[in-house]
Specification:
Helix content is 54%, strand content 12%. The protein is of the alpha/beta class. 37% of the residues are buried. It has one domain: Rossmann fold.
């Protein structure tokens, strides 16, 4: 059992098909089994308003959407989620497990869409009330492996292709170097059980 009573904010990041959503769910299940309260949130989405924004962002019919519109909508969804769900639950001492958060905007709209990262950093700070995860796990896999794993219909952003995902992955790796105290790179090519054990060991090392 854990000895610390303080709730934490943990985010999971990765390119599409990396397995981050699976790892976020597994982590929450393990957390609860160890006596902690927690909730899982996803991005974009997580509130009625954020889910409506998600539909606009991901539907394939909106292929004419420009990069700045995409970035603004992503951060608008995040702002609503942060204010309505994340901050209140942290105040109630519940762990927050996020399937994507602010780093996704830096990687996708910064790396993938080539928007200015400094501008996106400022936009994220405004949207999130300057809240940052305590730890971010970047599940790193090669884009060709991510593509092989996919078994579902691609949304508008996933349909951008492997070259786009390569740019996104490279930006994630650069962010991991820039924010090395917060972002932990996990080899996503391992078994899901091994990945989860590595994540769990890191959390125990940091907090318990």
């Amino acid at each position: 059992m854990f000895t610390s009573d303080k709730a934490r904010f943990i985010s999971f990041e990765g390119i599409d098909g990396s397995g981050k959503s699976t790892q976020a769910k597994l982590f929450l299940d393990r957390l609860i089994k160890n006596g902690k309260q927690g909730i899982l949130v996803r991005e974009p989405g997580g509130t009625p308003i954020s889910e409506e924004i998600r539909q606009v962002l991901l539907t394939k019919v909106n292929r004419q959407m420009v990069a700045r519109t995409e970035a603004l909508l992503m951060t608008a969804s995040r702002s609503q989620l942060t204010k309505e769900v994340i901050l209140p639950n942290l105040e109630q001492n519940r762990w927050i497990i996020a399937d994507r958060y602010a780093d996704s905007t830096l990687a996708y709209q910064g790396g993938g869409r080539e928007l200015n990262l400094d501008w996106l950093l400022d936009l994220n700070k405004f949207a999130t009330y300057e809240l940052e995860p305590n730890v971010t796990f970047f599940i790193d896999i090669l884009p060709k492996e991510a593509l092989r794993r996919k078994k579902y219909t691609e949304d508008r952003i996933e349909a951008e292709g492997i070259a786009f995902q390569k740019q996104v992955r490279q930006t994630y790796l650069e962010l991991a170097k820039q924010f090395s105290d917060r972002i932990i790179v996990i080899d996503g090519h391992m078994s899901k059980e091994k990945i989860q054990n590595n994540i769990w060991d890191e959390i125990k090392r940091r907090y318990f």
